[in-house]
Amino acid sequence: MASRFLGRHIITAKQFTREDLHQIFQHALEMRRIVTTEGATSLLHGKMLALIFYEASSRTLGSFDAAAKRLGAETIIPSPGMHYSSVIKGENLSDTVRTFEALSDALVLRHPKRGSAAEAARVLRKPLLNAGDGDGEHPTQALLDLFTIFLRRGAIDGLTFVMAGDLRYGRTIHALFYLLRHYRVKIHLVAPEPLGLTLDHWKEFHGLGLDLTEYQTLGSAMGCADVLYVTRVQKERFPDRPELFEQVRGSYVVTPALLDQAKDDLVLMHPFPRNDEIAPEVDQDPRAAYFEQIENGLYVRMALLGLVLGKI
Ligand code: NCD
Prior knowledge:
By secondary structure, the chain is of the alpha/beta class. The chain contains 11 helices and 9 strands. Helix 6 links the parallel strand 5 and strand 6. Helix 2 crosses helix 11 and helix 5 packs across helix 6. The model has no long low-confidence stretch (mean pLDDT 95). The structure holds N-carbamoyl-L-aspartate (NCD). The site of N-carbamoyl-L-aspartate has 13 residues, from helix 2 and helix 6.
């Protein structure tokens, strides 16, 4: 039976049902088995994936590239950052993605504008995966985040989340919220005042049934956290207000002293890159899960590629 993901775009975390998530996680577990025992498979042999990144990326670009190659596919990466592509000559997004559609079997797009993935998908027949659209969403990151929690804790229902950092512009957080609506969880928000959730987002997430509470400091929310998810201030999203970055940087920092107040089985997460939000000494703490997130991203993206290309 063909998967219901065959040929589908992955644009928003809103598109997944709870059932979908568990299906993806089962495939991701199988991908982990393949990678750890055999290293690679030829499931996508002969397939070509175009990785179109208009914005900086280390993990997401590397992860999709590695996922494709571990599945036996090849990748085209048109001039990272698109600096030497025809975008410089004024080519529009539609022409660029249709060009790479003609050369590949599926596309991955990262773009600084919210809504760009949906916009690009409208002109495509082959599947497009959103690898981050401005301050919009980052659905594959949300999947790998949830998969990491699932692996660490065995279940999502019943957990208390503390989400700290840039809740306004943090696309990984927005996407994760759309997945968390399928579970019975509590969410505590800790953000410097100008970077809290927008009213629109607050209303939307509340309307989806999420149980949200604001906290002033990380310390006050720590004791009850099962998951602490920390993000970087997305300073590139407000280039005209550099003083804001200076004002908020360092306003929440995870240190060994802070973790003394946390549960022993806390899952400490960060989508990376980090700035000053997590002290490097914390990396030794077994509760730190951020390097695991990166590894799990490989398995989740392998699963997604296999699904949208109809090979699993
Ligand atoms: C994030 C992103 O680009 O949205 N990183 C990632 O993809 N793992 C978060 C960030 O840039 O801070």
